[in-house]
TrEMBL record:
Keywords: 4Fe-4S, DNA damage, DNA repair, Glycosidase, Hydrolase, Iron, Iron-sulfur, Metal-binding. This is Adenine DNA glycosylase. The lineage of its organism: Bacteria, Bacillati, Actinomycetota, Actinomycetes, Bifidobacteriales. GO terms for molecular function: 4 iron, 4 sulfur cluster binding; 8-oxo-7,8-dihydroguanine DNA N-glycosylase activity; adenine/guanine mispair binding; metal ion binding; oxidized purine DNA binding; purine-specific mismatch base pair DNA N-glycosylase activity. The keyword Iron-sulfur applies. It holds the Pfam family HHH.
Length: 325
DNA sequence: CTCCAGGAAC
DNA sequence: GTTCCCGGAG
């Protein structure tokens, strides 16, 4: 079977331009009409959409993004908000530390960058909460620069199409980055479409467990399909993340209770006579907080960790509230 | 039960 | 490299 020797390493990879043509046609016909696409928002709006989309489905992000950008259309506006407002607006998007980091990011951009995002990868990754993926995505989608975007979808699609194997777990390996850079179109504009189209294909067609190869625009060029889809769904890109009974659930319950407190100083039925409490951000008496979770030790540990993360404040009397500053 | 456009701390 | 953050839809 191995009677022919590959003359060059590049020869083992399908011609990217042959993949791009059907992929781009598919993109133009099937791209989701997300409100931050197609030049309808600012670079800051793109960054907000990317942060909200981390580990969260787009369908859930859209309404939050619209409401968020309506209230805080730029970094300066978000920088001026209180953390309590920001955490409340984040709602149930999940991983609320992202909200806090996004505001820290806004304060840096507003305070040190004249309210304009850095236009370099290094400048972007230096911002709080902005890592490799988000910096690359902003460079590509907001600024139109030619840069390879590497996320879990793109890793999966490129690995399948061009090498015929499933991408492995863990962080992106040098070989995966080399591949992404090698197949990225030379033209900047085409590179942006490529990044978005490959990502969209991974989200809608070339999914992890049940890829819809029957409707895939590049099935005829896909090495993974040609090889019989070896090891399909065999390995996850991340270890499974349970939720029930974990600190993540307990933290979510505590934070949700604080978000639900009536605004304007109500305390949900606790001691209204606490003379020292300020109006504006209501607090939850510790006695009520204890009823949120049966395991006292776990609850107290979670309250402490939320405090460490800056997601809540613990008042001298032990009551809890969202941070005012 | 599974799925999902990450980042940062250790 | 491993582990910790979260939540809702299917």
């Amino acid at each position: 079977m191995n009677d022919t020797v590959e003359p060059l390493a590049a020869a083992s990879v399908a011609d990217p331009s042959a993949v791009a043509a059907p992929l781009f046609a598919w993109w133009h016909a099937n791209a989701r009409d997300l409100p931050w696409r197609f030049g309808r928002t600012t670079p800051w709006g793109v960054l907000v959409s990317e942060v909200m989309s981390q580990q969260t489905q787009m369908s859930r992000v859209v309404p939050y993004w619209r409401a968020w950008m309506d209230v805080w259309p730029d970094a300066a506006a978000l920088a001026a908000a209180s953390p309590a407002e920001v955490i409340t607006a984040w709602g149930r998007l999940g991983y609320p530390r992202r909200a806090l980091r996004l505001q820290e990011c806004a304060r840096v951009v507003a305070g040190e960058c004249a309210d304009e995002l850095p236009r370099s990868y290094d400048g972007l990754t230096a911002l709080p909460g902005i890592g490799d993926y988000t910096a690359s995505a902003v460079m590509s989608f907001a600024f139109g620069m030619r840069i390879a975007v590497i996320d879990t979808n793109i890793r999966r699609v490129l690995s399948r199409v061009f090498t015929g194997v499933e991408s492995l777990g863990g962080s992106a390996k040098p070989a995966e980055r080399d591949l992404a850079n090698r197949v990225l179109p030379a033209d900047a504009g085409e590179s942006v479409t490529w990044n978005q189209a490959v990502m969209e294909l991974g989200a809608l067609v070339c999914t992890a467990k049940s890829p819809r190869c029957d409707v895939c625009p590049v099935s005829g060029l896909c090495m993974f399909l040609a090889a019989g889809r070896p090891g399909l769904g065999e390995r996850r890109t991340r270890p499974r993340q349970r939720f029930q009974g974990t600190d993540r659930q307990v933290r979510g319950i505590v934070l949700d209770a604080l978000r639900r407190l009536p605004a304007g100083g109500g305390d949900g039925g606790g001691d209204v006579g606490a003379a020292g409490t300020m109006p504006g951000v209501p607090s939850l008496p510790r006695a009520q907080a204890r009823q949120l979770w049966a395991d006292r030790a776990q609850l107290d540990a979670c309250i402490a960790s939320l405090d460490d993360d800056g997601l809540i404040e613990i008042l001298p009397d032990g009551s809890l509230r969202l941070p005012r500053a």
